[in-house]
Amino acid sequence: MEQFDAVIIGSGHNGLAAAIHLRKRGWSVVVLEAAASAGGAVKTCEVTSPGFRHDLCAMNLSMFAGSPFFAQYKDELTAHGLKLVGATDCFATVYRDHSHLGVSTDLESTVAAIGSVSERDAVAWRAMVERFGADAPHIFALLGAPMPSFAAARAVLTALRRRGLNWLSDTARLLLSSPRDFLDAHFESAKLKTLMAAWGLHLDFTPDTAGGALFPYLESMANQSFGMVIGEGGADTIIRAMCSLLSSGGVEVRLNAKVAAIETECGRASGVQLADGRRIAAKRAVIANLHPQLVFGRLLPETATPALFNRRVAGIRPGPGTMMIHLALNRPLDWRGGEALRSFAYVHLAPDLAMMSRVYAEAAGGLLPVEPVLVVGQPSAIDPGRAPAGQQALWVQVRVLPAEIKGDAAGQIAASHWDEAKQPYSERVLDLLEHYAPGLRARILGRAVFSPLDLERENPSLIGGDNLAGSHRLDQNFLFRPVVGWSRYRTPVGRLYLCGAATWPGAGTGAGSGYMLGRMLAGWQSCRKKGILHKPASLYVAFPAAEARRLVERFEWHYTPRHGSWLDMAESELAVLTAQCLDRRLPDKPTLVREVAAWQEYRNQHHAKANWRFTTDDAGVKLRKLCPQYPWLRRLEHYEDPDGKIPAHPVFFMLKEMLMGMKHIGTSSVLMARPVASAKDANFTGTSASQRSCSWPQNSNLWFVAKWKSGTITVMGQSAIRF
Prior knowledge:
- The chain is an alpha+beta fold.
- 48% of the residues are buried.
């Protein structure tokens, strides 16, 4: 059976980002993809006519281009073929009178266009753009931090210190406001409000939905300040470059490798079983880049996770459905709004706020909307290589639609299943588009229509055609994504992690969840040296950056690697607590390296993990009661050799000896264990785990530290030291 440090299920860009970062940190990784091509919702194919390359789902790569992941790996991805193209004219909205308003990277051009409808709004727009330059670092620092985390808290405190309480209050209002309330507070023109509010529907926010103001604000200001970015030749340029980078590092992305089940052992993910019966073991992590509803209850039995967690996963509310229509045109569209519209990457056909509210209400009721919102992408206007010379590849996203059809708001389509309804409804869409761009049908060389059901067939994570992997409304965002209590990519199953659009920070091409998960598993980027400590991340969230760096340099070689009985949470807790107590009192690096190597050799020779049996001890129960503030003690585990001669890891007996041999352990106790180098260093008596006691000679390689309430550190074999 093959074995890797991490097995990643799903080759979406978040899974690939996690794979790249883990591989760079020395992990062995394999990526398993059920489809015939990698990329998830980021794929580019010739689905209409030869020579026309269409992005099946995602087209806009601005989030990827501005992501921390790209900032770190830009040079390597570029060397492996990544090519991005910037759009000068980013997005526009066409109104019912066929006028339009657009945002271009030239601020003066945008301000002049806004000034034609409202001089006051032109001034307000310019002021908002200037404020965005100061606001953006703090907002993106918050959006780029795990939820919850000290990093997120630090982002808020930094913003408070630099920008003041009034700014923090205004930002909190922005995060909670509806698009209409936010826009009414800043602008007077209905056209400008409509232009910005259209972005809300991309993330399931109607004009009056609380929490929907942030995305229209960020997209509008970011496009004005940085422009929009698409991939040269197709959005899949990021997938091809990421796969090539992984391949160069020895990581295989296996296609047509469908995972049938995630295997567990003693409450932890231990590997996966493929549909063809093959098994792959995971030593450190199984990462599912999938919708949670495809993982829990499907790849894992319901009994593997708590009932409350299962109910919450089952209750994840999807965003509305989406239809994609791809058209190959013999020449570009002639917009009634003017030839200038030909140059925009996105054109929204969402002419007013009332229409946006109405279409959402119809779709939420299960009805096919009379007038859907259309996002018309014109990638070949930015990247001419997408289509033959003089022709156009058109990308049309139809928002918002019901996953299950209960009727037609127009009373014209009788079909109640998407396989029968998609053709007549696509004709309605083309009629609407032709109203704004006459002569459309006469230019069509080929078309491809993907209903919400087709999108789910193409990518099972797009349940009901929801390309968000769950609504982004406030009750399913931030701390509540994917479900409350599990927003940091962990799951109730040990060593099983989630990433992707269903997790924070949500949908989009920014690769945020995959990159943050990779950093959390392998250690922060600033920890450059290759040491024994797997996860110094806990130090960085517990201490100021300068102090954390100093501790990492000293502590990196002072902490043992993960063994059978160690829990991820215990490792993180112990790293922080022992760093506080043991700085300047640890053996030299060569000694520790030698001792750890000896322990690993002993373990490899004498322990067969498959034969270990899981036991508990009353000492662990007592210790958990004495130290309730340390959550990892609640999950304390112990593995014992079948012959009962020596524990697989001495930490359990360390805890027991501390409990039984020291009567003054208080609730502020701190502990650390270092592994024995060989069996002869410890003397055991007794016949069972609950009865056995152990004694350690003063020159033993195992020692411990206890932090007393009085502020004294006691080290085995040494006298008490006051600190």
